[in-house]
TrEMBL record:
Organism field: Advenella faeciporci
Residues annotated to bind Mg(2+): 6
Enzyme class: transferase
Pathway: Metabolic intermediate biosynthesis; chorismate biosynthesis; chorismate from D-erythrose 4-phosphate and phosphoenolpyruvate: step 5/7
Cellular localisation: Cytoplasm
Protein name from the UniProt record: Shikimate kinase
Gene3D superfamilies (UniProt xref): P-loop containing nucleotide triphosphate hydrolases (3.40.50.300)
Native organism taxonomy: Bacteria, Pseudomonadati, Pseudomonadota, Betaproteobacteria, Burkholderiales
GO terms classed as biological process: amino acid biosynthetic process; aromatic amino acid family biosynthetic process; chorismate biosynthetic process
Length: 162
């Protein structure tokens, strides 16, 4: 959360002239309520079930840029889809930087705790090896601006194609 998947994914798609999908946005569109409301009513498990279902569905589409949510890597079935279907880019930043970016955002139910900073560090520690296990490319986003991160990824992908 806060790594820039949604923002950078959208800008990268524009730069590459591809369609962009955000998995959270697709989930919300299908059930008509926000992510916090899904968590409230169905719990994290309910959200993860929806996330897996929608990932399976959008993974059928060729040639798009897809931003997942930060927890999509938690299930092996999701990781298998990502590995099989995409060039996976891990946007990496420190827990402190992630916290700075999302501190004021109320749309991330997992951070609605008394100590969101500690929560981010904990989630990152739990998930880091999963991110690494699916990533084809890892990009440090801690210091680069949004346009410079987009440019770096775009250049790397173009090199990959040559
Ligand atoms: N490289 C960056 N430098 C500074 N701010 C960033 C960067 N990438 C994203 N942000 C900001 O961080 C916040 C969270 O970004 P978002 O794209 O929603 O992340 P994610 O989808 O990974 O949770 C947004 O306000 C966004 O503008
Ligand atoms: O890390 C997570 O478990 C989550 C990240 C969120 O997406 P972003 O990573 O785009 O914030 C969203 O899917 C949900 O709140 C759960
Ligand atoms: Mg996002």
């Amino acid at each position: 959360m806060g790594a820039g998947k949604t923002t950078i994914g959208r800008a990268l798609a524009r730069a590459m002239n591809r369609d962009f999908l955000d998995l959270d946005h697709e989930i919300v569109g299908r059930c008509g309520v926000s992510i916090p409301v899904i968590f409230d009513i169905e719990g994290e498990e309910g959200f993860r079930n929806r996330e897996s279902m929608v990932l399976e569905e959008v993974a059928q589409i060729d040639g798009i840029v897809l931003a997942t949510g930060g927890g999509a890597v938690l299930r092996e079935a999701n990781r298998a889809i990502l590995r099989r279907r995409g060039i996976v880019i891990y946007l990496k930043a420190s827990a402190d930087e992630l916290y700075r970016r999302v501190a004021k955002d109320r749309n991330r139910p997992l951070l609605a705790t008394p100590n969101p900073k500690a929560r981010i560090a904990e989630l990152l520690a739990q998930r880091e090896s999963l991110y690494e296990s699916v990533a084809d490319l890892t990009i440090e986003t801690g210091s680069g601006s949004i346009p410079s991160v987009v440019k770096t990824i775009h250049n790397l992908l173009q090199k990959n194609q040559e």
